[in-house]
Amino acid sequence: MPDTALNVTPHLSIPESELVERFVRASGPGGQNINKVSTAVELRFDVARSPSLPEPVRTRLLAKRDRRLTEEGVLVIDAQRFRTQDRNRQDARERLAAFIATGLPVPKSRIATKPTRASKIRRLDGKRARSDIKRGRSGSHSWD
């Protein structure tokens, strides 16, 4: 294990001690190799209790509603794209870094605006036109 920490940005890194890796057998095609070798990686990272994450980043990540997050706030990443354990391990770490990076930017706060007078008129004109079309469909028909 050459790296002692997972570097997300130059200012943020996750120590090796916070990552839990489990090597399991991958599913899918692969013949004998897949039945004998545990190449798939299950990487777990406790987002809710990680001392490395700044509080605002943790809050944004937990609010994401990602299916990989458990109810306890643990992110579980399964990596089995590649044939080797080392490459799957690298892939899982890259995906974890990408997930954490999505929580770094602070979202812009929305400034509430009122619709312009012209846009209100356009909306009502459209509704009126649609109403006229629908009204034209009902009533007596010439072929009756």
What's the short version?
Its EC number is 3.1.1.29. This protein has helices at residues 31-36, 55-62, 85-102, 117-137, and strands spanning 5-7, 13-15, 19-24, 40-46, 74-79. With 144 residues, the protein is α+β, with helices and mostly antiparallel strands.
What's the layout of helices and strands?
Blueprint: E1 5-7, E2 13-15, E3 19-24, H1 31-36, E4 40-46, H2 55-62, E5 74-79, H3 85-102, H4 117-137
Antiparallel strand pairs: 1-2, 3-4, 4-5
Characterise this structure:
There is one protein chain. By secondary structure, the chain is α+β, with helices and mostly antiparallel strands. The chain has a domain at about 5-100: Double Stranded RNA Binding Domain (2-Layer Sandwich). Helices cover about 35% and strands about 15% of the residues. The strands form two sheets. Strands 3-4-5 form a three-stranded antiparallel beta sheet, with helices on one face. The mean pLDDT is about 80. It holds the Pfam family RF-1.
